[in-house]
Amino acid sequence: MTYRDGQRLSLEADGAPLRLSVNRRARRVSIRIDARAGEAVLVAPSERRLVDAIAFARTRTDWIRARLADRPVAVGLAPGQRLSVAGEDVTLAALPGAVAARLTDTPEGPVLAAGGEGAAWSRRILTFLKRRAREVLMARTEAHCRALGLPLPKVSINDPRSRWGSCTPGRGTIRYSWRVILAPPAVLDYLAAHEVAHLVHGDHSPRFWAVVAQLIGDPAPHRAWLRQHGAGLHALAV
Hints:
Layout: E1 8-10, E2 17-22, E3 30-34, E4 39-44, H1 50-58, H2 61-70, E5 75-76, E6 82-85, E7 88-95, E8 102-106, E9 109-115, H3 118-148, E10 154-158, E11 165-168, E12 173-177, H4 185-198, H5 206-216, H6 220-234, E13 236-237
Parallel strand pairs: 2-4, 5-13, 7-9, 10-12
Antiparallel strand pairs: 1-2, 3-4, 6-7, 8-9, 11-12
Helix pairs in contact: 3-4, 4-5, 4-6
């Protein structure tokens, strides 16, 4: 049977949902969990290797089923909800009228408030989070580029399903997920260092990790935080 990139199927017996994905930069077949879509993604370096990815998935059915069952339940933005924004615990609130989101200090703590109701209110909160993500990540990107003597790349904020950031050295561009603004500042700093290091080395070789360590020290705790809490960041439905 021939399989193709993007095809969806289910594992025999337990019916776990799978999506096939081709990543030309991948060195081997692998499996990752897409928490937002509620499915396992089988990654192969070519369409020809997708059959190998499926065979691999059949040996990991228990792991896939457990990871899908453990993924956080999706939650939407709502007034009264508490979020951690760049390490600061804030409470979301609604204001009357079409007022842009703003962060204010109150006796009860920081409050992120916006005008409107429903989807309009959520869009204003999301706009603030994306703008804040760009500000923080741009500042850390600039700092790491200065440390390495590199020109500042073009930075953009997106919402990818799996990557927290990506770098295209040939184009001088870096993309970040806005969701990392919900992570601690040290994790944000690690992510910026990781992507800036890719401007020097486009792979994940020891030389690449040496550059990351030069910028922020040991990256292991920050990578571990993303592995442990990343699904929770993706569970925020916007």
